[in-house]
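Quick note —
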Amino acid sequence: MQQNRITFLILVLIFGISCSSKSTKDRISITELEKHLEDISAIQDDSQRKAEADSLWKKLTLEDQIPFKQDSIVVFLFKGEADQVSWNGDFNSWSGDKSFDNEGSRIEGTNIWMLKAVFPVDARIDYKVTIDESWILDPVNPHYQWSGFGPNSELRMPEWNPEPLLERIPEAQEGSLTENILVKSTHLGYYVQYQVYTPVGYESLENLPVIYILDGQEYSDNKLGGTVVMLDNLIH
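Predicted structure written out below.
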């Protein structure tokens, strides 16, 4: 370990109490998907229309194509009986941004709902499907991300790449994270908890920089911020 190339950190965390086997070339395009859905809707025989819709849905599910992505375009899809289906997430401030049209449209003659949108090609977005007034995880999307309020479904756009520092480097030595420490804040007027991260060898080190992170209970959780793993990796 080269001392002159490493910046050690003391981290203080503060918070209030309160798959597919199919190759890409075999997959259909968005234009083909929309045409296929249009053709299914036009089938007169109810049994045949249902069979074709089920077959398409099975194909998309097996190929991990829900939500359906191509370049910067995404098609959210849901299959099920409902009076109204919409999608809420980071893209509309979880229903707070009314300028984003989040209402899905039902493919006539089927129980398939869809919503088409455009996002940055390298985006990673949390979302939920809203069935009538119930917010649920996307039942056919295997990808999800934890938040401070529980899990959300995760949309991974085509050029998104995971943060490599969130994967622990096997050789990286693990720093220490204290248990929660309770203290009465004079300025805030209530109790807060905090934790302190220190690197390996902290006892013999001097003049270390300090980072203070609010909502520390989320940033220190490996399912959420993963800060402890990132610091261990950076120090390594």
